[in-house]
UniProtKB/TrEMBL annotation, chains B, D:
<dbReference type="InterPro" id="IPR001851">
    <property type="entry name" value="ABC_transp_permease"/>
</dbReference>
<feature type="transmembrane region" description="Helical">
    <location>
        <begin position="234"/>
        <end position="254"/>
    </location>
</feature>
<keyword id="KW-0472">Membrane</keyword>
<feature type="transmembrane region" description="Helical">
    <location>
        <begin position="59"/>
        <end position="78"/>
    </location>
</feature>
<feature type="transmembrane region" description="Helical">
    <location>
        <begin position="107"/>
        <end position="134"/>
    </location>
</feature>
<protein>
    <submittedName>
        <fullName>ABC transporter permease</fullName>
    </submittedName>
</protein>
<feature type="transmembrane region" description="Helical">
    <location>
        <begin position="290"/>
        <end position="310"/>
    </location>
</feature>
<keyword id="KW-1003">Cell membrane</keyword>
<keyword id="KW-1133">Transmembrane helix</keyword>
TrEMBL record, chain C:
<dbReference type="InterPro" id="IPR003593">
    <property type="entry name" value="AAA+_ATPase"/>
</dbReference>
<keyword id="KW-0762">Sugar transport</keyword>
<feature type="domain" description="ABC transporter">
    <location>
        <begin position="5"/>
        <end position="241"/>
    </location>
</feature>
<dbReference type="Pfam" id="PF00005">
    <property type="entry name" value="ABC_tran"/>
</dbReference>
<keyword id="KW-1003">Cell membrane</keyword>
<keyword id="KW-0813">Transport</keyword>
<keyword id="KW-0677">Repeat</keyword>
<dbReference type="InterPro" id="IPR017871">
    <property type="entry name" value="ABC_transporter-like_CS"/>
</dbReference>
<keyword id="KW-0067">ATP-binding</keyword>
Length: 316, 338, 511, 338
């Protein structure tokens, strides 16, 4: 799409793509290895892939859920290799632990599309993802410039300690608010990505901090939880809430913005559609894809929420 | 008999000690409460921890675990364990949301169906334990996976958002009331539900014949059977009650978060078990009380709250919580009769 | 008139064991019918069938002439059949009153439990049996004997037409037994049929109107116990004459083995109902069997536990000398290392792993002697186990069999044998023949005599006065945790012991 | 003496049945294996399930759970349970990575220290159980949180990636060998480690005096104590062994994934317990075998593999696994002596 930052795969196509392309007459089994469907974002990724694949009659997509366990995901990919799938889509739980097994698949001639989180090295066909640091930066800038131009107190609700996106969304955010020294992060708490954890952490934050102007949450569910906590003590009007992910589902962030609970959220694209498009290019069109495709984030606020929600859910 | 007099004195003395120890879980709670006051951050001279709305929050935050823990107490009293409660909570949360939002059911039929599902799920686990004789740890470990799988399938894998209103795809506003606060906006309804459940359970255990049967099954199953206690029925009933309460907690969960997600309640079973054990109920069965469980749940809630108020690093929080659980359990060992 | 109970051609198999075979048993109203037989003869099984506990069996049962087939204990209770089970089946966490009314709680008009009425009625019931126990006390706090009294009260409260008593007195001393007999006579006059199972021969002649002997699951004979001598009854049970029940005690000649002086224990956390030693002095010589007598709760068990080092923590005063050397018992390992062995009161809960093999149970205390570097030489342990089984004349199939499949007496021998394999100098025995049949008892006595002759000292606590008088060289009487008298069995009888135990003795410390 | 003969025959007969039932967990495994072959997808006439590298994958995938489950068998044999193993695995994985990568320690000292940490952690849990008398469920539930917290703190909250080489911030290449495959690239080293651990455990339980003590403690703790079994020492040793094996599994985990992450091993304790129970070891203690556990672990591995090869929906997988666990446990109830 427009504004896509990309780099071309250098020289010839990967060993995999050429061999596995049987054109439009072929039948293709695609294995999708998902890190953890218990995260709404990743469930949506699977759903997007499923929806996009419906439009490609040659494709038969299988799904595996690693339930947040690196070792299980390694086994999932091994099992796909055993099944001799034609293409692997993987959204790795973590980079390093999956690198070896992805390389193994790639070396066996299976094209690999990596989503959301990279693996190390370059033994894959293409990567499609977002940039968490950039999202954090955008959110920081938005808060520093739009919500608190004259400064104020921010509390940060972080994701699960130890998760990469948590660190990156935090890091980017600090960069983003640098421009406005009057914006202060007065407290941070870990909500483990969970709505109820966001709620109970916010209970305490509200108690401990009489003046909060903005709640910056690492994802939408925690932001919603924080909103509920503030509402319970009648303080939801005193402050603004921002989230990240902007899933176009009824329980997602776009709806929350549309309904006025959140001031803004930032899309973290699932890339499901893009992944199937890339797979089609490799298998059906016998073409090559970009080695790395970073989809930009979009700011969702009251002005565009309804429109984007409708765009993302064309059927209803 | 000659030794009646001799024994009267120690018996008296014992009953004082016994009374004290009966409330030892409450002591643990008081100790943590006092510690919380001491370590509470202050703002403008106000001790934040003891402010009315903070205390309301503390109880609100434990209300779901508390409701589950009451049911868990019953199961542990008969010497069993129920690992499925967290998953059943998730299933119930999904159920409430799907029925009211997607199927446009009314408030009452939805709640009744969801509670019935929890009841039947629990009862089936009771059947596997009591009639086939599989250990409850295993039955409910399997039950956990099955309930989680069902919740995922029912919800389509995504959380189902709950919006209120009279239109289609909206839950009845009466349902929203369950998540509100009452008494001048101070006391959250979930707290009241928790309190009602706890008091009902305490009274039930005190006055019903069923409770004697329950303690008997946990204390000496063979003796219970020989005395004509319907052991199988008691076991099934207890697992059914536990399932019912877990699904009640799921409804409360859904209304508090305006959403029913299949991933709700992961790991809640361990918190509930911790509350029960800290409250002085023996995992071996036959000994314990709901009052202790309530104290145990509140203790955990106060602990969480004070750690959060002080912004303790989440990793250090894990260490502290682990140590407090061990300390609270060690306190139980001070009982005169073990 | 119809018989109250008529059991015809009853058969029951447990795996390879025929527990009952073609048994015909009749009980009349107002009759006390004693059921006798060796351990494992099938007495309990037969009665469990009658009381609805065992529901799969061959044969038929008729009550008052009407055929019945019970689906469970509740059915039997509804038909007026109550049973006091051999193993004490009470719920430790519930109160005495709750236990007595378990399964048929008294209710208030609003269906809640009527606690007050249950407590009142429980107190009346206990009073009727001459027991004064607070009905609110949790049963788990009671002594074994007291628990047995509660089970008796519970059975009586059922107002049954048929009352089965399976070894109701195994943990009772003679005064409680006498009271129980009073109750039994009362019930008999009101027309209740009673089945009475006991291994205490002297009781049978006292209460029973008729006696039936089972052997290997079959009826051997039926007779009027008042017309037969104990020796004849025993022969009927065992199937061969048992020459001497008791070995004639030799007077001990050895050196002093154990000396206890002013032993007193103040428990750090006193447990209700425990009677810790409160000033006990006694001696045991090598080759001597010293008895410990006393009423229920006199503190015999606690004394033995203290000597073995398993009493609860606290301050201990007084001295314990083993072969002249002061020792402070620290626990079983320490005691065993010093040459002190202990056979606990309840073999099922404290003695054996019932579902482990005979082999594993016999060698567990002496494992280090069967190999090197923590590796067991299987041949050595088998040899030791076989040797012990032979020496104790253990009846068993294979060493791998589960110990729980042995009869009670043989189980007891396994616990004995385990201690003997540690080659102790002093054996502490707590009610070693509880629930053991006469034949096995005789063998245990013979064995004790043999061991004593080889220089072993024995301290034997027992509630059976005939046993104390018959087996021991000397008997020390305890009361309230103190030693109040000591007798030589050569010149004192059961009456003297009982009087001392009850505190009716004027002169204390008769030598 | 008459009934010695009487009993000889039934004892013989029973021992045949007993022998059969001793291997019933193996039968379960065989049944699942056969089912796997039947339901295996085929490509070009080849049965995918039985291909050599698929079988190697199956065993490799269960090797960590298997190693943990061996230690868990010991704990369950003494009537305890260890919920901390998954967290200890994470701690050990983090430890190996941090020591070798960030602290540039050598292979041997790192491995020894990590194993020692697991050993000591387990032993401490044993102390809390055996000496203070807190139920192991609670001790290890707290231990789980503490180990997880320590792992997070030690790793700084992030997974520590392991690169191999001689330079600074690189782990010794000797360590990488642990993750390789041998015998013509077919048999993964983790499988060999698992096999060695399992065989050692089987032999140990068969010949050592310690194992008699262990079974005795699980069978009847009071009787064991009165028989002179050093109950406290046995318990501490068993928890220490379990901790040691969990941390060995953590090392294997780290080398297989080239990373030590504090979130590794979440939920592994339940898989390990399931393997033990499916293998026929009673949660009540005193009864069971390591051979059964190995069969149980392989059964779960084959089940996972065949469900994955057939691309069964992950939610349905949850249901099927739950039902298989219940079925396997129900099978245990068919034992002649229950
Ligand atoms: N539940 C059971 N399972 C297997 N065998 C049993 C069971 N109950 C009893 N037996 C066997 O049946 C036989 C009869 O046992 P029973 O308990 O009736 O004997 P008893 O006459 O009451 O002996 P005791 O005097 O020791 O109480 C014994 O061989 C015993 O091992
Ligand atoms: N309330 C109690 N709490 C704990 N242990 C108890 C209690 N009462 C008794 N015990 C213990 O139970 C065991 C059995 O006691 P039991 O009732 O057999 O006494 P006894 O043998 O009748 O009397 P004694 O041996 O003292 O003459 C002993 O170890 C005793 O210390
Ligand atoms: Mg019997
Ligand atoms: Mg005693």
């Amino acid at each position: 799409g427009c504004g896509t930052t990309s780099e071309r795969t250098s020289g010839a196509a990967s060993p995999g793509s050429s061999k596995s392309c049987k054109g439009a007459d072929g039948k293709y089994t695609i294995g999708m290895s998902q890190a953890n469907v218990a995260e709404p974002y990743r469930q949506r990724m699977d759903d997007d892939i499923k929806a996009a694949a419906k439009d490609v009659p040659q494709f038969d997509v299988k799904f595996a859920d690693a339930a947040q366990d690196n070792a299980k995901q390694v086994a999932d990919v091994e099992n796909y290799i055993t099944q001799q799938i034609d293409l692997l889509i993987i959204s790795p739980n973590e980079a390093k632990p999956l690198t070896a097994v992805v390389k193994k698949a790639y070396d066996k001639g299976i094209p690999v599309i990596v989503l959301d989180r990279k693996v190390e090295g370059d033994a894959y066909t293409g990567f499609i993802g977002g940039d968490n640091v950039q999202i954090g930066r955008e959110a920081g800038k938005y808060i520093a410039e739009k919500l608190l131009p004259s400064g104020g107190n921010v509390v940060e609700l972080k994701g699960l300690a130890g998760a990469t996106p948590q660190a990156e969304r935090h890091e980017g955010f600090l960069e983003g608010i640098k421009g406005n020294p009057k914006v202060k992060v007065i407290a941070a708490a870990s909500g483990d990505w969970l709505r109820e954890k966001g709620q109970s952490q916010m209970d305490a934050l509200l108690k401990a901090n009489p003046k909060i102007d903005v709640v910056y949450s690492h994802n939408d569910p925690m932001a919603e939880g924080a909103y509920l906590a503030a509402k319970a003590v009648g303080r939801e009007k005193e402050m603004k809430f921002t989230g990240i992910d902007a899933l176009p589902i009824p329980s997602g962030g776009i709806k929350a913005v549309e309904q006025g609970r959140l001031s803004a959220t930032f899309t973290y694209p699932t890339n499901g559609k893009e992944a199937i498009a890339a797979a089609k290019k490799i298998l059906v069109d016998c073409g090559t894809i970009e080695k790395s495709q970073i989809l930009p984030t979009r700011l969702i606020d009251a002005s565009n929420a309804a429109k984007i929600y409708a765009e993302e859910n064309p059927t209803g | 008999m000659t030794d009646v007099q001799d024994r009267a004195a120690p018996a008296e003395k014992r009953s004082v000690a016994a009374t004290l120890f009966r409330f030892q879980s409450v002591f643990g709670l008081i100790a943590v409460f006092v510690a919380a006051i001491i370590f509470s951050p202050r703002k403008n001279g106000e001790i934040l921890f003891v402010s009315a709305d903070n205390l309301a929050n503390v109880v609100r935050a434990v209300s779901e675990i508390g409701i589950i823990a009451v049911g868990m107490t019953f199961v542990i009293l008969i010497g069993g364990i129920d690992l499925s409660v967290g998953a059943v909570l998730g299933l119930a949360a999904v159920g409430s949301a799907v029925l009211m939002v997607e199927n446009d059911w009314g408030f009452l039929p939805s709640v009744v169906l969801v509670l019935a599902i929890g009841l039947v799920f629990g009862a089936l686990q009771g059947v596997a334990t009591a009639m086939i004789g599989i250990q409850s740890f295993i039955v409910t470990l399997a039950g956990l996976q099955i309930a989680r799988g069902l919740a995922r399938i029912w919800s389509g894998g995504q959380g189902v958002a709950i919006a209120y209103g009279d239109g289609p795809k909206e839950a009845p506003t009466s349902f929203a009331l369950l998540g509100e606060r009452t008494f001048g906006g101070l006391v959250p309804i979930p707290v009241i539900i928790f309190a009602v459940v706890a008091i009902a359970a305490v009274v039930f255990l005190r006055v019903s014949a069923f409770s004697r049967h329950l303690y008997a099954v946990g204390g000496n199953e063979k003796a219970a059977r020989l005395s004509g206690v319907p052991v199988v029925r008691v076991k099934i009933a207890v697992f059914a009650i536990c399932g019912l309460l877990a699904s009640l907690a799921g409804i409360v969960h859904a209304v508090q978060l305006n959403q029913g997600s299949p991933n709700d309640g992961i790991g809640y079973e361990l918190d509930a078990i911790a509350a029960v054990v800290i409250g002085g109920t023996s995992l071996a069965g036959g000994r314990g009380s709901v009052a202790g469980t309530v104290a145990g749940a509140l203790l955990l809630g106060v602990l969480n709250n004070i750690l959060a108020l002080n912004n303790i690093d989440s990793n250090i929080q894990l260490l502290i919580k682990g140590l407090v659980i061990v300390a609270a359990a060690a306190l139980q060992r001070l009982r005169p009769t073990s | 008139m119809d018989d109250l109970v008529r059991m015809s051609a009853i058969g029951k198999r447990y795996g390879g064991v025929q527990a009952c075979h073609e048994v015909d048993f009749v009980l009349g109203a107002g009759e006390v019918h004693a059921l006798l037989g060796e351990n494992g003869a099938g007495k309990s099984t037969l009665m469990k069938i009658l009381s609805g506990d065992v529901t799969e069996y061959a044969g038929s049962i008729a009550i008052n002439g009407a055929p019945v087939r019970f689906g469970g204990p509740t059915d039997a209770q509804a038909a007026g059949i109550a049973m006091i089970h051999q193993e004490l089946d009470l719920v430790p966490g519930l109160s005495v009153a709750d236990n007595i009314f378990l399964g048929r709680e008294l209710r208030t008009p609003v269906r809640t439990v009527d606690r007050r009425r249950m407590e009142r009625e429980a107190r009346e019931l206990l009073d009727r049996g001459g027991v004064s126990l607070d009905p609110r006390r949790p049963v788990g706090e009671l002594r074994v004997g007291e628990q047995q009294l509660v089970t008796i009260a519970k059975a009586i409260s059922l107002d049954a037409r048929v009352l089965i008593m399976d070894e109701p007195t195994s943990a009772l001393t003679s005064s409680e037994v006498e009271r129980l007999f009073d109750v039994i006579r009362e019930l008999r006059t009101s027309g209740v049929g009673i089945v009475y199972i006991s291994h205490r021969m002297e009781e049978i002649a006292k209460v029973a109107d008729r006696a039936t002997v089972l052997r290997n699951g079959q009826i051997v004979t039926s007779f009027d116990p008042r017309k037969l001598s104990t020796a004849e009854v025993v022969e009927a049970m065992v199937g061969r004459p048992v020459q001497t029940m008791f070995t004639t005690p030799d007077s001990a000649t050895g050196d002093e083995l154990l000396r206890v002086e002013g032993l007193r224990l103040r428990a750090r956390r006193p447990r209700p109902g425990r009677r810790d030693p409160d000033g006990i002095s006694l001696t045991v010589r090598a080759g001597e069997i010293v008895g410990l007598a006393g009423l229920l709760g006199a503190g015999r068990t606690e004394l033995l536990e203290t000597l073995y080092g398993v009493a609860p923590g606290g301050t201990r005063t007084g001295r314990i000398l083993l072969q002249g050397k002061a020792i402070r018992p620290r626990g079983p390992r320490h005691a065993l290392a010093q040459g002190i062995g202990f056979v606990p009161e309840d073999r099922r809960t404290s003695g054996l792993v019932l579902f482990h093999s005979i082999l594993a149970n016999t060698v567990v205390s002496s494992l280090p002697s069967y190999g090197r570097l923590g590796v067991i030489a299987r041949r050595m342990e088998r040899a030791a186990s076989t040797r012990m089984a032979d020496r104790l004349r253990l009846k068993f199939g294979r060493l791998q069999d589960e110990v729980g499949t042995l009869s009670g007496g043989n189980q007891q021998k396994v616990v004995f044998g385990r201690m003997l394999l540690t080659e102790p100098k002093l054996l502490l025995l707590d009610e070693p023949t509880r629930g053991v049949d006469v034949g096995a008892k005789a063998e245990i006595y013979r064995l004790l005599g043999e061991l004593a002759a080889q220089g072993l000292g024995v301290l034997l606590a027992s509630s059976e006065l005939p046993e104390l008088v018959g087996v021991c060289d000397r008997v020390v009487v305890l009361r309230d945790g103190r030693d109040v008298a000591s007798f030589s069995t050569a010149d004192s009888g059961e009456g003297d012991l009982l009087a001392a135990a009850m505190g009716h003795l004027d002169v204390e410390g008769v030598q």
